Amino acid sequence: MATRENIVAFLLKRGPANGRQIAAHLGISRQAANKAMQALMLQSRVLKSGETRGASYRLAGKKTDKAAFSRRYPLKGLREDMVFQDSDLALGLRGRVARNVYEIISYATSEMVNNAIDHSGSGECHFAAEVDQAKFRFVVRDRGIGLFRSIVDKFGLESETQAVGELLKGKTTTMPQRHSGEGIFFTSKAADRAAFRSHSLCLIADNIVKDVFLEKRKFLSGTEVLFEISTHSPRKISRVFARYAPEDYGYKFQRTSVNVKLFGSEYVSRSEAKRLMTGLDKYREIVLDFKDVRSVGQGFADEVFRVFGSRYPGSAVTTENANKAVAAMIKHVVDNRNI
User: 37 and 73: one domain?
Assistant: First the structure.
């Protein structure tokens, strides 16, 4: 019991610390420190952020220790940075979240508000944010044309479901003269959890479980964006950028990852392949994630791994999370593409 109370006293004085620092301060083994921290977490007195060696521990705040901010903004003439400045001042974010999390919040807030300003066609948006010791979240809501409908209309797609897949490729924008189309892509990668809801669809990017989901929801006019992140997340916006816009490519957005399941779970035709690969020639590295895709036909695989590769030799296509059936078909096409 004394060890637990000593840990609480240490975290109260020092703030977040990792297991090595806690053990060293108390003069006990890492195993003993971990055992005591597990007990404290079961009592909801201590919270853990991160995994394994990168994990840190902090005191859980009181359930009432929460700050909230809510305001409606006319979109005409609005500067996106103004919304972040208002919420930062009202919530005292610098003193509540880690510095790297503060930078992520600043980026995500500005990008999502800017999206409402330039793309929604709405007269105003509602911004709401709240923070406690464990988590920060914000919601941006407008009543405009709708995120997915805007993409459907611009690119002549058949459905809003198709628009979801296009959106997460990155560089998809309805105003190329003003935007690179990267904001939603990078925001979805920077969050612990981000949700983009419009009309009857809700796209959820969950970076804790490392998966993306598309759900049917009750009809919602306009667009609602939800962003959540732990106040002491180890994630850094610079690392998110570096993964998809690395130094090797002059820090340009030249690498992307596509969740193939967003376009379907079974693929047969070349037309399906062409739809999947549309716009991906903009990238030098393309990772196709086949998680939850049950099967692909030879025509589909040939179009993706032979025809696309021949047409765009500067774009390298790799795969991950393919099941045995999918991997076998891809291997068959790749092994025979030069015959």
Answer: no
Q: Which of 197, 212, 238 is the last residue before a domain boundary?
A: 238
| Mean pLDDT in residue range 163-190 | 70
Amino acid at 42: L
Same-domain status, 196 and 303: no
Q: Are residues 225 and 85 in the same domain?
A: yes
Q: What range defines the domain where residue 318 resides?
A: 254-336
End-to-end CA distance of the chain: 71
Q: Is residue 30 part of a domain?
A: yes
Overall domain count for the chain = 3
Same domain? 167 vs 228: yes
Q: What is the pTM of this model?
A: 0.68
Alpha carbons 76 and 321: distance in angstroms, whole number: 45
What would the two tokens of residue 278 be? 């549309």
SS (HEC) of the chain: CHHHHHHHHHHHHHCCECHHHHHHHHCCCHHHHHHHHHHHHHCCCEEEECCHHHCEEEECCCCCCCEEEEEEEECCCCCHHHHHHHHHHHHCHHHCCCHHHHHHHHHHHHHHHHHHHHHCCCCEEEEEEEECCCEEEEEEEECCCCHHHHHHHHHCCCCHHHHHHHHCCCCCCCCCCCCCCCHHHHHHHHCCEEEEEEEEEEEEEECCCCEEEEEEEEEEEEEEEEEEEECCCCCCHHHHHHHHCCHHHCCCCCEEEEEHHHHCCEECCHHHHHHHHCCHHHCCEEEEECCCCCEECHHHHHHHHHHHHHHCCCCEEEEECCCHHHHHHHHHHHHHCCC
Q: Helices 99-119 and 147-155 sit at what angle, rounded to 10 degrees?
A: 60
Model confidence pLDDT, tens digit, residues 283-306: 889 999 999 999 999 999 999 999
In this structure, are 41 and 173 located in the same domain?
Answer: no
Is residue 306 one of the residues assigned to a domain?
Answer: yes
Distances 134 to 48, 57, 59, 160, 326 between C-alpha atoms, Å: 9, 11, 9, 35, 41
Does 243 map to a domain?
no
Average pLDDT over every residue of 255-283: 85
